[in-house]
Design a protein that fits this description.
Four Helix Bundle (Hemerythrin (Met), subunit A); mainly alpha; 74% helix
């Protein structure tokens, strides 16, 4: 006998939703963007980056407007796609010499630190819920702005070096502060007494 679903219960969305397909397309675009940067096709790289940003807004709008299109998979897949795009851009720009390598190391290390902390807490049975902090949102915004300015500079030769120089230090500072905030929160969580 099948369980009866309450009439007011929200239907379980299949993972194959339009927002998830858009997010997957954005994820697939990451290696293409890296290849374009390595080949020096900066105009196309900038176009792919802009398209990825637009698609990010579209899939979010669809999920918010049509609840049946929202899914648990999308809640995890969307930030993964965004992070993969940003991390790969920073690494590639560092490899090509446009940004200092220490900045790429800093950006990647922060994400590794957060993922590692979550995995450790899960492994020892003290799962921690990572909530986006204000400084983390500011950090992500600064990273996106820097990536956009850097790609525009490379694509259109706008000579934005003074702006990119400032943004490098803004991204670096926010990355360090964000990592420290998450680390402090994780240490506090791990130091709390276990609940029976």
């Amino acid at each position: 006998m099948r369980d009866r679903i309450p009439p007011d219960a929200a239907p379980l969305a299949t993972p194959v939703t339009l927002p998830n397909l858009i997010t997957l397309a954005r994820l697939i675009a990451v290696p293409a963007l890296v290849l374009l940067l390595l080949e020096g096709a900066y105009g196309w790289a900038f176009a792919v980056f802009v398209a990825a940003g637009i698609s990010d807004g579209i899939d979010g709008a669809i999920a918010r407007t049509f609840p049946s299109q929202a899914s648990e998979l999308g809640r995890y897949l969307d930030p993964i796609a965004d992070k993969a795009l940003l991390v790969c851009i920073y690494i590639t720009l560092a490899v090509t010499g446009y940004v200092p390598r220490w900045l790429a190391v800093l950006v990647v290390s922060r994400d590794i630190l957060i993922v590692g902390a979550v995995m450790v807490s899960l492994a020892i049975g003290r799962p921690v819920r990572i909530e986006p902090l204000l400084v983390s949102k500011a950090n992500t915004a600064a990273q996106i702005l820097f990536a956009a300015v850097a790609l525009a500079d490379l694509a259109f030769h706008y000579r934005l070096a003074p702006m990119t120089d400032v943004l490098i230090w803004v991204v670096a500072a926010l990355t360090v502060v964000s990592a420290a905030a998450y680390l402090i929160g994780w240490i506090r969580h791990m130091g709390e007494p276990s609940r029976p």
